[in-house]
Design a protein that fits this description.
Largest sheet: 7 strands, mixed
Shape: globular
Strand content: 5-15%
Number of helices: 13
Bound molecules: S-adenosylmethionine
Number of domains: 2
Distance between the termini: 39 Å
Structural class: alpha/beta
Oligomer: single chain
CATH topology of the largest domain: Rossmann fold
């Protein structure tokens, strides 16, 4: 069973009153949603852009019946989603960003550099262009820029060149072949703690799903949707996401619209980090809308 990250902290900070409507904007496999519902909140809207994940969440949360509304959509459309479901001012919103363990582990989703899978990487397979279609069109400068900006890969130009050379000779057949080219581009030898393909795979995933654009639009919509005293909790897993969240929260605090409940991000304790490796890079920030 997938274990939600910082679940105790999320419930304590997000839902102190338990009345009103809550939103889990990344319901995923339903781990955080289950904890929030078990704490007694009245109503939860669970959003995910991945239909397979939503099906899992539906099963896991079946015992809560009509208290949960499931929505298959991108959280950047939060305003329209809440309008459509007549939610009114919201008491709390959670986003646990990035990909789920299920998406990473299933080779056929195309996120994994450890297993061979199709060059896809879309969280929502019903829309948008898969990675293969993007790589077929992209030029070297654009690709290098993506790898540099979203992966913070210092050797982005060499990696982009290796990927496109493989594409042009027809060798980019799956994620395993892509990972081989990335490692070749990075050009490091010997044992490394982190696979050199990690940064580029992160970059390509962020690009395919326009993850950072979605976060910016989402934070604006979430802030508008919250009622006075409502709380927005966001868990980020890499510095690019965390920077966006920190800046958005600080700007609202500076204008007096928000109270920061976490001056520094909350991180998982040593026990959780030992039990759940995914929690090691998690950073939770929570802001409250000032009445
Ligand atoms: C880390 S997982 C969430 C896990 C969940 N909190 C749990 O406890 O099971 C992130 C989920 O967010 C979804 N997601 C990522 N970006 C999204 C977006 N822009 N709109 C909607 N869902 C998104 C992914 O499809 C994935 O299922």
């Amino acid at each position: 069973m997938h274990e939600p990250v910082l679940a105790g902290e999320v419930v304590a900070m997000l839902a102190p009153h338990r009345t009103g409507t809550y939103v889990d904007a990344t319901v995923g496999l339903g781990g955080h949603a289950a904890a929030i519902l078990a704490a007694g909140v009245e109503r939860l809207v669970g959003i995910d852009r991945d239909e397979t994940a939503l099906a899992e969440a539906r099963q896991r949360l079946a015992e809560y019946g009509g208290r949960v509304t499931f929505v298959h959509d991108d959280f950047r459309h939060l305003a329209a989603i809440l309008d459509a479901h007549g939610a009114g001012p919201v008491a709390g919103i959670l986003a646990d960003l990035g990909v789920s363990s299920m998406q990473l582990d299933e080779a056929d989703r195309g996120f994994s550099f450890r297993q061979a899978g199709p060059l896809d990487m879309r969280m929502d397979r019903s829309r948008g262009l898969p990675l293969a279609a993007r790589l077929a069109e992209v030029d070297e400068t654009t690709l290098a820029d993506v790898i540099w900006r979203y992966g913070e890969e210092r050797r982005s130009r060499r990696v982009a060149r290796a990927i496109l050379a493989a594409r042009d000779r027809g060798a980019l057949t799956d994620t395993a072949a892509l990972a081989t080219e990335v490692r070749r581009g990075v050009g490091q030898r010997g044992w490394q703690r982190i696979d050199p393909a990690t940064r580029t795979f992160q970059a390509l995933r962020i690009w395919v799903n326009d993850e950072l654009g979605a976060i910016e639009t989402f934070i604006d919509a979430a802030w508008t949707a919250l009622g006075p005293g409502g709380r927005l909790a966001i868990i980020a897993f890499h510095s690019l996401e965390d920077r966006l969240v920190k800046q958005a929260f600080r700007a609202r605090a500076a204008s007096g619209a928000a109270a920061l409940l976490t001056r520094r991000p909350v991180v998982a304790g040593p026990e959780e980090q030992a039990r759940n490796p995914r929690s090691r890079s998690a950073r939770l920030r929570v802001a409250e809308k000032v009445a």
